[in-house]
């Protein structure tokens, strides 16, 4: 009969190998270090005002600590890294994008209201009629700054000031007192190129006159009194001293607004509800291009699947022909485009379709005397995209069809031959009906992939030619995903909120296709 250490009265931990104990301690130390690191990220993001990221890492750290400290959750430790990665890189971006779609987040509304207020309060302006011309005069290894007023509105004598000897190698911001003087220094003034070289140090100087007037550099030839433009008031508004007007914070649009309705940039993000979704369908300058791109996206994805399936199926059927010799060589050659990185093939095709020097137009010109404008005509550009994408996608369909055709029992073809059936009868009555059912989920997956085929559009056409009259960057060859990218990162306003709303719609469409794919695959959801 076998006995255990517990039955002998020995401590349980002695039954473990020393290496196992060390591994356990190392794993615990690693988990503790990860938890500490995540908590540090929580504090760092919280201090920077990024509460969503702070909440994300707080939840992640708490989940890590709970899963790896409770014995009852031991079985979940192995799947935890995958679930954590799913949450960080999939679920969180989706939730974050969905949240942005209900805001006016853009390049003009990036900062918080507090930072916008602080930025406006830091702005200055030059007092009119009080500029001082300046010159630099060398005194040994140091330099003396000489100031002379360019006009005295009061009619008094010209005001002149001189600074103590300065070390212009020091570019830190500093306050220097200047004293009245009767004449400039005896040394010759430095040349303009030397003034330009010392501009960094001069911009850091704050010159203070005996009357308490502070002068700052306002050009390569002038120092002038620089006054704070805005003054904060108790009710939260700002007073513009230069233009004599009041700026009121408008929480509906996220900007400071003047008395006459002018908005002052920058602004801050505010919730706008369903405004971004409403703009997509209500604003004619957005609705028209959006619907055009929406229809083209479905047509592009559907036609790509149709063409690649047709080419791949026909080639796979030909490769199953018994009388065909050298099948291995043909398979290798036909599948070879699948092994070449897509971006290389796309760039090669971009050169081949060049309107002036491309091989395609050279051949068409020599044969038919025509040179199509592939990149400027909308329909030709779309045709070019379908041709290139068919070339890139048919090897995948070829592999699928070859595998499915080989699984068809040969008895069916023999029976068809007895009944007098030919190759076309076998193709449309036996082969195609038997492979289309298992192929359907894969076709839907291919449709979803081409629905978001950003790389092809970005590298081949860039979405061009543009749609005329659109208020956002939109092209006739744009897909919804490239259209979203252009709104978010290529538009002058970088409207992230509108782009997030379109991205949310894309997600719902692709999610619907995925659910349909699972249903057709007979996977219970």
UniProtKB/TrEMBL annotation:
GO terms for biological process: maltodextrin transmembrane transport. The keyword Kinase does not apply. GO terms for cellular component: maltose transport complex. Keywords: Cell inner membrane, Cell membrane, Membrane, Sugar transport, Transmembrane, Transmembrane helix, Transport. InterPro entries: MalF_N (IPR035277), MalF_P2 (IPR029345), MalF_P2_sf (IPR047103), MetI-like (IPR000515), MetI-like_sf (IPR035906). Coiled coil: none annotated. The chain crosses the membrane at residues 25-45, 51-69, 78-99, 293-321, 333-353, 384-405, 439-460, 496-518. Residues 294-517 form the ABC transmembrane type-1 domain. One of its GO terms (molecular function) is ABC-type maltose transporter activity. It is a multi-pass membrane protein. The keyword Transport applies. Its main location: membrane. It is found in: Cell inner membrane; Cell membrane. PROSITE patterns: ABC_TM1. The complex is composed of two ATP-binding proteins (MalK), two transmembrane proteins (MalG and MalF) and a solute-binding protein (MalE). Part of the ABC transporter complex MalEFGK involved in maltose/maltodextrin import. Probably responsible for the translocation of the substrate across the membrane. NCBIfam families: PRK10999.1. Belongs to the binding-protein-dependent transport system permease family. MalFG subfamily. This is Maltose/maltodextrin transport system permease protein. It comes from Halomonas campaniensis. The lineage of its organism: Bacteria, Pseudomonadati, Pseudomonadota, Gammaproteobacteria, Oceanospirillales.
């Amino acid at each position: 009969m076998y006995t255990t250490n517990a039955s002998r009265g020995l401590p349980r931990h002695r039954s473990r190998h020393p290496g196992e104990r060390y591994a356990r301690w190392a794993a615990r130390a690693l988990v503790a270090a990860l938890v500490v690191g995540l908590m540090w990220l929580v504090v760092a993001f919280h201090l920077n005002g990024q509460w969503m990221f702070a909440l994300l890492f707080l939840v992640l750290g708490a989940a890590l600590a709970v899963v790896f400290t409770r014995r009852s959750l031991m079985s979940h430790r192995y799947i935890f890294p995958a679930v954590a990665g799913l949450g960080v890189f999939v679920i969180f971006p989706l939730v974050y994008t969905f949240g942005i779609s209900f805001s006016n987040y853009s390049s003009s509304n990036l900062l918080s209201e507090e930072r916008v207020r602080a930025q406006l309060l830091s702005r200055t302006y030059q007092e009119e009629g009080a500029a001082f011309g300046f010159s630099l005069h060398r005194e040994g290894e140091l330099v003396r700054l000489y100031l002379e007023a360019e006009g005295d509105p009061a009619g008094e004598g010209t005001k002149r000031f001189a600074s103590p000897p300065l070390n212009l190698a020091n570019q830190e911001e500093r306050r220097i007192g200047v004293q009245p003087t009767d004449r400039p220094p005896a040394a010759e003034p430095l040349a303009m190129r030397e003034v330009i070289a010392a501009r960094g140090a001069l911009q850091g100087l704050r010159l203070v006159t005996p009357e308490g007037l502070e002068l700052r550099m306002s050009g390569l030839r002038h120092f002038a009194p620089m006054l704070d433009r805005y003054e904060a008031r108790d009710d939260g508004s700002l007073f513009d001293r230069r233009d004599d007007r009041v700026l009121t914070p408008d929480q509906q649009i996220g900007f400071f607004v003047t008395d006459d309705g002018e908005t002052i940039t920058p602004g801050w993000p505010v919730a706008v509800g369903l405004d971004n979704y409403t703009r997509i369908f209500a604003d004619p300058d957005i609705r028209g291009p959006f619907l055009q791109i929406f229809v083209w996206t479905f047509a592009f994805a559907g036609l790509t699947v149709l063409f690649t399936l047709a080419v791949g199926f026909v080639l796979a059927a030909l490769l199953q022909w018994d009388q065909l010799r050298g099948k291995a060589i043909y398979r290798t050659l036909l599948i070879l485009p699948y092994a070449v990185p897509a971006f290389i093939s796309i760039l090669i095709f971009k050169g081949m379709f060049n309107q002036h020097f491309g091989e395609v137009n050279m051949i068409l010109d020599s044969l038919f005397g025509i040179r199509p404008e592939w990149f400027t005509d909308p329909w030709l550009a779309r045709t070019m995209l379908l041709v290139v994408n068919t070339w890139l996608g048919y090897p995948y369909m070829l592999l699928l069809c070859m595998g499915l055709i080989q699984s068809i029992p040969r008895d069916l073809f023999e029976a068809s031959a007895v009944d007098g059936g030919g190759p076309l009868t076998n193709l449309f009555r036996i082969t195609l009906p038997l492979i289309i059912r298992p192929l359907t989920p894969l076709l839907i997956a291919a449709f979803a992939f081409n629905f978001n085929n950003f790389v092809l559009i970005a590298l081949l056409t860039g979405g061009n030619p543009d749609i005329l009259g659109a208020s956002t960057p939109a092209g006739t060859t744009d897909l919804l995903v490239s259209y979203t990218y252009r709104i978010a990162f290529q538009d002058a306003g970088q409207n992230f909120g509108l782009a997030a709303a379109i991205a949310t719609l894309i997600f719902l469409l692709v999610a619907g296709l995925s659910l349909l794919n699972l249903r057709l695959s007979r996977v219970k959801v």
